Amino acid sequence: MKNLFTLLLATLLFQSCLQQKESADMIFTNGTIYTVDASNPKVEAVAVKDGMILALGSSLEINEYLSEETQLVNLLGMTMTPGLIESHAHLMGIGYNKLELDLMYVKTYDELVEKVAEAVAKAKPGDWITGRGWHQDKWIEKPEKMVKGFQTNDLLNEVSPDNPVFLRHASGHASFANSKALELAGISNLKGERPGEVEGGEIILDELGNPTGVLTERASWLVGKLVPEETPERAEQALTLALKELAEKGITSFHDAGSGQETIDLLLKFKNEGKLTSRHYMMLAGSEPELLENWYKRGPMIDSVDHLFSVRSIKLFCDGALGSRGAWLLEEYTDRPGHFGHETLPMEVVGQVSEKAIPAGFQVNSHAIGDRANREVLDQYEAAFAKFPDAKDLRFRIEHSQHIDPEDIPRFGELGVIAAMQAIHLSSDRPWAIDRLGEKRIVDGAYVWQKLMQSGAVVTNGTDAPVEPVDPTPSFFASVSRQTLEGTPEGGYESSQKMTREEALKSYTLDGAYAEFEEDFKGSIEVGKAADFTVFDKNIMEIPESEILNSKVMMTVMGGKIVYSLQ
């Protein structure tokens, strides 16, 4: 009888333990939480344990995981989503942009010249003046003298006769230099059969053969290589500023679109020092063949423990940008007859890299904006895939995929190629892109998000910062409205290609995770996944489109840690 009583007591205690909920480290409660999980799309509360999602449900249900040690975060009715994933941007560029002349918001050429003059006044004779962000097609008024759609450096020379000036275009695919910088590079009056042409780029010349100061695509390197190299101390400062910016903008994961070993080493240093406040997925710079050869031998670096920093992809630059007329087109530019843009990388290199990457375990991500570039890259991918028929789940990507011939759109889905797009480019570029491409090409194949998704392709989202600000809210707005940030035109450009809000959120979360092979770890709010969250003051999934741009990120959570809070 005594043994029976003991057994009964033990059974009751065991059942009691089973009924007792595990204590959470954190609970986020009393909010509107969009999970991006189709089977459970919206909840009120989430419990977190050891940086992972323990449970989710109603606030009442999740309160069962509350203990004296639990940190309770009352969302006060705010909106929480999975942590946002920036799928294509340039990490160090974001930081350095804060240390140089930021020309992103300059509205006229005169304003640009004024900023340079201010920098010259503070500099020593001979010091380089550098900056980034100008875009002549976004200026509210154009200078009187323009050559091939660009300004000339006459005013720049007046304010900086002794200091070399090198200002990168917002797209990164052109630059603007004064005469002092051109002189140091050995660029003067150019004559010959094809004056100004550089392999993969162009030195823009006036009618007399004199350089105007504008260099497109690979021609920028003629001056850019002379700019003094960055110091390790300045690099750390830039990375610190970039990480701070990501946290403030609600970004918990970041795809760096092409960097070298120095940046990899710096990120590893920050990781080891506990300074990373976001997760990072690195693309190796394809412009460095020696770097690629070293990594082919080494193989991918996949962080399967902390999921903080992985290197398993390669970035290739295959054409230029539309703003600089460098995007490689099948037909000539509407506003520059006889010009087709630039193939900035021989297409056979795409094939060669792909054939080395597949057996080595690397993903290949190719920058392609023009329809010719997209077609050529797809051809190279398809040929490489055919040589490795047993290789599965490769998830090769085309970065930007902005302008595609209608015949090539279905190939994305058929080949399983991810379209890594940036919706904000529609808002910024569409008003003038029609001048470059004409109406038919715009309607048939420009920014065709729905057509790509209907082909079966995964479409990710981002900003290409520092080409655009890294803030995801304007890109989300562009995804669902297809309008400029001023709210024009009514109904949006080519409105049939709008994303639904659910599609837009997925493109910024779960699809971004898929594009880096991490969809089982993050990208949605599900039990067992990472506790990465972004909290907004407004319900971006329900408020009128016109109010989306007024919403603010109130909190950013990465791995169960609050890395930013506006409150």
How would you characterize this protein structure?
Among the domains are: 93-225, Diaminopimelate Epimerase, Chain A, domain 1 (Roll), CATH 3.10.310.70; 318-499, TIM Barrel (Alpha-Beta Barrel). Helix 14 runs antiparallel to helix 15 (439-445). It starts with a helix and ends with a strand. With 567 residues, it is an alpha/beta fold. It has 20 helices and 27 strands.
Layout of helices and strands, plus pairs?
Blueprint: H1 2-19, E1 26-29, E2 32-34, E3 42-43, E4 45-49, E5 52-57, H2 59-62, E6 71-74, E7 79-82, E8 84-89, H3 91-97, E9 101-102, H4 109-122, E10 129-134, E11 146-147, E12 150-151, H5 154-159, E13 165-169, E14 174-177, H6 179-184, E15 197-198, E16 201-205, E17 211-217, H7 221-224, H8 232-248, E18 251-259, H9 261-272, E19 279-285, H10 289-298, E20 309-317, H11 347-360, E21 363-368, H12 371-387, E22 397-400, H13 409-415, E23 418-420, H14 424-437, H15 439-445, H16 449-454, E24 459-460, H17 472-481, H18 501-507, H19 510-514, E25 533-536, H20 545-548, E26 553-558, E27 561-565
Parallel strand pairs: 1-6, 2-7, 8-18, 9-10, 10-13, 18-19, 19-20, 20-21, 21-22, 22-23, 23-24
Antiparallel strand pairs: 1-4, 2-3, 4-5, 7-25, 11-12, 13-14, 14-17, 15-16, 16-17, 25-26, 26-27
Helix pairs in contact: 3-8, 11-12, 14-15, 14-17
Pfam families: Amidohydro_3
InterPro entries: Amidohydro_3, Metal-dep_hydrolase_composite, Metal_Hydrolase, YtcJ-like
Protein name: Amidohydrolase family protein
